[in-house]
Specification:
This protein is of the alpha/beta class and 403 residues long. It has 13 helices and 15 strands. The protein folds into 2 domains: 6-24 and 33-167 and 301-368, Periplasmic binding protein-like II (D-Maltodextrin-Binding Protein, domain 2); 168-298 and 382-402, Periplasmic binding protein-like II (D-Maltodextrin-Binding Protein, domain 2, 3-Layer(aba) Sandwich), CATH 3.40.190. Strand 1 (57-62), helix 2 (79-86) and strand 2 form a beta-alpha-beta unit. Helix 5 (208-218) packs across helix 6 (232-246). The radius of gyration is 20 Å and the shape is globular.
Length: 403
């Protein structure tokens, strides 16, 4: 689950000044371009057939920083122009976690949500999210092909939303404390004891996928093909690795400001991070670097999804088209610190190096990133001869791992 998105909110308040740096296309997460939800049959729901007159408002659930209206920073506002253009008043509920988003969508009070991959399949399976008619969303044509029809935003070729943006979970380290420079997740797993008490990790059940990804490279006999599709033996191995790692963890991070502070002080010297946090830490003179390790990495790709109970579906569709349009998608990507989903956005960013820093169009880069996908009993790696461990058990295991 994505953590509380204090990142953009704090930036809006002037807490942080980011200097970001446009470059290369992506192929879907983790080098897998197969349609999502293999073996998974969602409730039978229909997408909107045609676009009608806007209802006058749209009720959204969003991560902080995704629906800026100028209230945090007068210069940061893509909501007001939308309202003026469409006549749809935007009402936003900012959510702190994916679990909260799922719960809010179940109320039927909201029209759309910016769901991360650890929530999207849950929303599809429960019938809370409807298929999306992408023909009604002109900007969808310009979305990187590798972000379309992926395991976290589609089922059997049917789209359940439009991609918003993406990022990778990187390995950050103190250059004066961790030598030689690490190129593997072994720095936080097998070699974590060398920095006992100063290793940090992302505080979420989905972090089990990071352990599974490492095991897929170091223990090939386990047969892990997808870090989000773990049978019982594979799951238990990932849990065991994280239990072992726990002895070396100084702090699990769920607040980017605390992670920056810990790396500046030396309380943390190695662990998971995001590119935007690396930029921020460097801006504050922390001696850090980050790498996408040789095993690859997990990552996130957010999807704007429409509620199956949407009371304002026409305004919701207009919002989906707006938020992924080149100019607006560029603004959001720069403000939040992520790679835009619209390929034309790289020509629209204020910082002409933004897309290079965030590898927006770097196909080889994204092939190494396994985007968050909700673990479900129907193994998303295509296996039909076994059952995979569902997300609810990931949650329970994570609680026990942390102690």
């Amino acid at each position: 689950m994505r953590l509380t998105r204090t990142l953009a909110a704090a930036a809006a308040l002037g807490t942080l000044t980011l200097t970001t740096a446009c470059g290369g296309s992506a192929d879907g997460g983790g080098g897998a371009g197969a349609p999502g939800g293999s073996g998974f049959t969602p409730p039978k729901l229909s997408a909107l057939a045609s676009l009608g007159t806007g209802e006058g408002q749209v009720n959204l659930i969003a991560w902080a920083g995704y629906t800026e209206d100028g209230s945090n920073d007068p210069k940061t506002d893509w909501v007001t122009p939308f309202e003026k253009k469409t006549g749809c008043q935007v009402n936003t509920k900012t959510a702190g976690t994916s679990d909260e988003m799922v719960s809010l969508m179940k109320t039927g009070q909201y029209d759309a949500v910016s769901a991360s991959g650890d929530a999207s399949l849950r929303l599809i399976a429960s019938g809370d999210a409807a298929p999306v008619n992408t023909a009604l969303i002109p900007s969808y044509a310009d979305v990187f092909p590798s972000l379309k029809n992926q395991p976290w935003n589609s089922v059997k070729g049917v789209a359940y939303g439009v991609p918003h943006g993406r990022g990778a979970n990187l390995l950050m380290y103190r250059t004066d404390k961790v030598t030689p420079a690490p190129d593997s997740w072994s720095a936080v797993f097998d070699r974590g004891a060398a920095h006992q008490g100063k290793v940090t990790a992302y505080d979420s059940p989905i972090y089990l996928a990071d352990a599974a990804l490492y095991l897929s490279a170091t223990q090939p006999d386990l047969g892990i093909k997808n870090p989000y599709a773990l049978d019982r033996k594979q799951f238990d191995a990932a849990v065991a690795l994280l239990e072992e790692q726990n002895r070396n963890i100084g702090e699990y991070w769920s607040d980017y400001l605390k992670e920056i502070s810990a790396f500046k002080s030396g309380d943390s010297v190695v662990g998971t991070t995001w590119q935007v946090i690396v930029n921020a830490a460097k801006a504050e003179k922390a001696p850090v670097e980050a790498v996408l390790p040789k095993e690859g990495a997990t990552g996130w790709s957010d999807t704007w999804m429409v509620s199956a109970k949407a009371k304002n579906p026409n305004c919701a569709y207009q919002w989906l088209d707006w938020i992924i349009s080149p100019e607006v998608n560029a603004q959001v990507a720069e403000y939040f610190g992520e790679a835009p989903s619209n390929a034309k956005s790289c020509d629209k960013t204020a910082d002409k190096g933004h897309c290079a820093t965030y590898h927006a169009a770097d196909e080889a880069y994204w092939k190494r990133v396994h985007f968050w996908t909700t673990p479900i009993p129907q193994c998303v790696d295509g296996r039909t001869d076994t059952t995979c461990v569902p997300y609810s058990e990931w949650v329970q295991a994570w609680t026990e791992i942390k102690g």
